[in-house]
Amino acid sequence: MESCFESISLLPKITLEPKNKVMSTQQTSTKQVIVNIGGMGCTGCANTIKEALEGEEGVIEATVDLESDTASVTYDPNVVSTADFKQAVEEAGYSFEGTK
What confidence tens digit (pLDDT) does each residue in 28-83 have? Predict the structure, then answer.
């Protein structure tokens, strides 16, 4: 008599994917930009700007450097642009002074 394990090995192999997995043919690309910011004076300011930038859809990560008055932003250019960063910084109450 054949064991359960032997009979299972005769069945075709089936691979299940998670229900919410999205298959995409478009490859995601990321960019990084340095944003010059005016008006920061403390770590609270830096945190406010970080939260504003990371609140934008398409921003993967924002790191704010208080000493150099800059933010390094990693983002998906298919979703968000530097114009969105300008708006986010200004709406947070700070001055957007261009990018590097």
Answer: 699 999 999 999 999 999 999 999 999 999 999 999 999 999 999 999 999 999 99
Enclosing domain of residue 76: 28-99
Domain total for the chain?
1
Q: How far is it, in rounded angstroms, from Cα 94 to Cα 47?
A: 12
**Residue 4 CB contacts under 8 Å (≥ 6 apart), including other chains:** none
* pTM beyond 0.85, yes or no: no
CATH number at residue 37: 3.30.70.100
Token pair 């192999």 is at which residue?
13
